[in-house]
Write a sequence for this structure.
C-alpha cells in the first residue's frame, strides 16, 4: 500500500511538474497568446488597440526549423539554442478597436489624404525605433532593430517586430520590464505595457522538441 | 384560515416584495463621479509626460542660451573694438550681429510653436488614455454613467459615496509606472 501511494505521488508529480515541449509555432503561439502566461499585454486607447507580445528564443528557433525534420532539425535546434543571445524581441500590433468596417485599416485611420497616408507608411517603416523603448529596472534601452511585418497587407492591423539588447545583468536580476510606445499617429500618448521578468524568464525556458 | 394557506400567502407577499425591490435596484442606473483634475494630474502617465516635456524644453532653452551667449560675446567684441574698425569691418560686424539676432528670434519663434504643439499632443494622449481607461473601468464594474465633477463645473454636488476618483486613480496608476530615471538611454 505504501509503495502504491509513493508511486501514485511520483506519477502526479511528474504529470504536473513536467512542461509540455513545443514542437511547432502554432502551439507556441497559442501558449504566448494566453494572457495568464504573461507574455502578451494589450490596451485600447482612442479607438486603437495596441498589443505587445514577447517572443522568446523558442519562437525564432521554431520559425527557422519549420521546414526541417528528423536529425537535421534536431541539429539546427541544438545549434540555434546554443547561440540564442540576450536579444529581447517583441511583436507590437496596432489595430483598430472595431474591425471589419470600410476603411478601418490602421494605415488609413485619421488620415485625410494620400500625402498623409504616404507619410504615415514611411514613418511606420523607418521611424518606429524612435517611438519605442524598453525599461528594465530603470534602465532604458532603444531598439536595435524595428521592422514592419506587413506593410502592404490588406488586413486592418500592422505588426512591428522590435528587438532590444538589454544588459545581461538587467535581464538576470530585473523584476519588471516596461515596454513603451510613444505614439505619433493616433494621439494615444506614451503607452506603457508592463511585463513581469519572471514571466519572461519562464517563457525563455520553454523546451523545444 | 388554515395555517398552510396563511404561510403560502405570506411567502407570496414576501416574494413579490423581493421582486419589486430587485427590479427597482436593477432598473436604477449606477452613477458615479470622478474629480477630473485630480485624476488627470494624479495619473502617472501625466506626470511622466510632464517630465518628458520639461526635459525637452530644457534642451531647447539651452540651445537658445548658447545662441544668446554667442550674440552677447560678439556684441561685447564689437563695442570693445569699435574705434579700431575700418568702415568696412564695422559694416561686416554689424551685419553679423544682425544675423545673430535674427537667428535667435527665428529659433525662439519656431521653438515656441513646437513647444505648444508638443504640449498639446502630450496632453491629448494622456487624456485619451484616461478616457479609454475610465470607459473600460466603468463597463467592467457595471456603472451606467461616470461624470467628471470639476474642471467644467458640470456637477455642483455629489455624495461622497459616489466619488470613485481614488479607486480609479489607484487602478490606472497600477497600469502605468514611472521609471525612476528613464530620460537617458543606458
Amino acid at each position: 500500500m505504501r509503495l502504491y501511494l509513493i508511486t501514485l505521488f511520483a506519477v502526479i508529480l511528474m504529470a504536473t511538474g513536467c512542461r509540455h515541449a513545443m514542437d511547432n509555432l502554432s502551439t507556441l503561439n497559442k501558449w504566448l497568446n494566453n494572457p495568464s502566461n504573461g507574455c502578451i499585454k494589450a490596451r485600447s486607447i482612442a479607438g486603437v488597440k495596441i498589443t505587445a507580445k514577447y517572443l522568446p528564443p523558442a519562437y525564432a528557433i521554431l520559425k527557422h526549423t519549420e521546414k526541417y525534420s528528423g536529425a537535421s532539425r534536431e541539429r539546427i535546434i541544438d545549434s540555434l539554442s546554443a547561440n540564442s543571445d540576450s536579444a529581447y524581441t517583441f511583436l507590437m500590433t496596432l489595430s483598430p478597436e472595431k474591425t471589419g468596417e470600410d476603411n478601418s485599416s490602421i494605415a488609413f485611420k485619421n488620415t485625410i489624404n494620400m500625402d498623409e497616408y504616404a507619410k504615415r507608411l514611411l514613418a511606420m517603416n523607418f521611424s518606429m525605433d524612435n517611438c519605442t523603448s524598453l525599461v528594465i529596472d530603470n534602465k532604458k534601452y532603444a531598439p536595435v532593430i524595428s521592422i514592419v511585418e506587413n506593410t502592404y497587407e490588406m488586413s486592418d492591423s500592422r505588426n512591428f517586430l522590435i528587438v532590444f539588447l538589454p544588459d545581461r545583468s538587467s535581464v538576470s536580476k530585473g523584476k519588471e520590464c516596461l515596454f513603451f510606445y510613444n505614439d505619433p499617429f493616433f494621439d494615444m500618448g506614451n503607452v506603457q505595457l508592463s511585463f513581469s521578468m519572471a514571466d519572461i524568464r519562464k517563457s525563455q525556458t520553454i523546451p523545444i522538441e | 384560515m388554515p395555517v398552510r394557506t396563511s404561510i403560502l400567502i405570506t411567502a407570496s407577499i414576501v416574494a413579490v416584495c423581493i421582486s419589486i425591490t430587485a427590479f427597482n435596484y436593477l432598473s436604477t442606473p449606477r452613477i458615479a463621479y470622478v474629480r477630473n483634475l485630480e485624476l488627470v494630474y494624479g495619473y502617472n502617465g501625466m506626470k511622466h509626460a510632464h517630465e518628458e516635456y520639461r526635459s525637452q524644453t530644457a534642451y531647447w532653452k539651452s540651445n537658445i542660451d548658447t545662441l544668446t551667449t554667442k550674440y552677447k560675446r560678439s556684441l561685447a567684441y564689437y563695442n570693445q573694438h569699435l574705434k579700431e574698425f575700418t568702415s568696412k569691418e564695422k559694416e561686416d560686424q554689424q551685419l553679423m550681429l544682425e544675423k545673430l539676432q535674427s537667428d535667435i528670434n527665428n529659433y525662439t519663434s519656431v521653438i515656441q510653436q513646437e513647444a505648444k504643439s508638443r504640449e498639446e499632443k502630450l496632453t491629448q494622449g494622456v487624456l485619451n488614455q484616461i478616457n479609454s481607461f475610465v470607459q473600460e473601468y466603468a463597463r467592467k464594474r457595471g456603472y451606467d454613467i461616470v461624470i467628471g465633477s470639476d474642471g467644467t463645473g458640470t456637477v455642483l454636488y455629489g455624495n461622497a459615496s459616489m466619488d470613485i476618483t481614488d479607486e480609479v486613480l489607484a487602478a490606472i496608476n497600477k497600469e502605468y509606472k514611472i521609471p525612476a530615471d528613464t530620460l537617458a538611454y543606458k
